[in-house]
Design goal:
The structure is a homodimer.
Chain A (H helix, E strand, L loop, with lengths): L8 H21 L6 H8 L3 H7 L3 H21 L7 H18 L1 H12 L6 H24 L8 H17 L1 H8 L6 H17 L3
The structure holds a DNA duplex.
Chain lengths: 205, 205
DNA sequence: CAAGAGTTTGACCAAATGGTCAGGATCACG
DNA sequence: CGTGATCCTGACCATTTGGTCAAACTCTTG
């Protein structure tokens, strides 16, 4: 059965309901910790009906991950060679932070996958992701060489941006536990802090 | 059966073999992704024998987590009120980075637990961890007020240090995939980068 | 070395879980 | 409105897995 492009109205509705439900459950319990019954219930379908739309549990997981990859890379892709370097990078940081706030499930799904060795997306990491990062690292390097940015290792700069921002999604429980935060207000403080951090470190002296 | 303090020689040997094996497997596959058989095989014991030493799979997991918590907090505890503020914080960053390099399994076990909502250590987060962080945040705040440190949000500073350093353990696969790194040489670059980042951002102008 | 404490295991069990399938219900469309 | 395609489900299956237990083995110690 060809599942790449849902054809009928019902197919569209159900596949998206399944993926939505699966994102919820997978991001909370990981791949092995998730059961088909959980997904089925969350999607409001029967288990055999799930398997009518997706060949297997793994197929659902894979569909989510591949769909996610592009979304995840997009903000980095927007780094503009023409813009003001420091502003561009700070804007990237804030974009990433917004994603952590608005799409925490996606971030955690990704984190779960990577922490456990990225068995399903290692190719994409070593391929498209690596290429994009190297490309942007070159851009950052050129900004440094023309004196528009303080000197830092571009790759590790990117890693630090990923980690600091995604941390607010992936370690959400820990952060809320420490701040006693029940809403998203602390994201404002985080934005403030990260802007300051990177602006100070990257503005050429 | 009282398992808090192994009594016999054999008990000491086997419980530590089990915990060592379990750390390996749990950190790689998460709680649900790990089977008792895997742990048993890695420890060189039979499955019933595992359960002679630990009441259940969860008991092994809990033993690991509680044992880990203290180790994880130790570096933060060492922040010295008497030292030079910027140096103290940079030293803390480097200590944390070394831990990510030398104890990646512990870091991933922790990450797995937190990402999935910290079902087993939420109390410790909201208790001892929270207290320690607040204590050190106060210290940092006092450094800022006396002009020895540039002004930043102390809590988010700590979060950023956790995330940037642990990232090298938790997202190891991704980092290696991008850097094409097969050894630990990139930890040197990371140390360099992070020292620079925090030194620039925290040194009072 | 006797004997009890401590250790180990093969065989077994119940529950959970991913997946199958035949047949029935429903929908789209000529 | 009829009919073929699409959609849905109850019942079922095989496997995996956490955990039990009685019996056997081994170690320690008086």
């Amino acid at each position: 059965m060809n599942m790449t492009r849902p054809k009928t109205r019902i197919q569209r509705k159900n596949t998206s309901a399944i993926l939505e439900a699966a994102l919820d459950v997978f991001s909370q319990h990981g791949f092995r910790g998730t059961t088909l019954d959980q997904i089925a219930q969350a999607a409001g379908l029967s288990k055999p009906n799930l398997l009518y739309y997706f060949a297997s549990k793994e197929a659902i997981h894979t569909a989510l991950l591949t769909g996610l990859m592009e979304t995840w890379l997009a903000p980095l892709r927007e780094l503009d060679p023409e813009g003001n370097p420091v502003d561009e990078i700070v804007a990237y940081v804030l974009r990433k932070l917004e994603m952590a706030r608005d799409y925490p499930r996606e971030s955690r799904l990704f984190a779960n996958e990577i922490v456990q060795g990225a068995p399903n997306i290692l190719d994409q990491i070593r391929g498209p992701l690596r290429d994009l990062v190297n490309d942007k690292a070159d851009l950052i390097e050129s900004w440094i060489l023309t004196g528009k940015l303080a000197s830092v290792d571009p790759h590790h700069l990117i890693f630090s941006i990923w980690s600091t921002t995604q941390h607010y999604a992936d370690f959400d429980v820990q952060i809320r536990g420490i701040l006693k935060a029940s809403d998203d207000a602390h994201f404002e403080d985080a934005a403030q802090f990260l802007s300051t951090l990177y602006r100070r470190a990257l503005t050429p002296s």
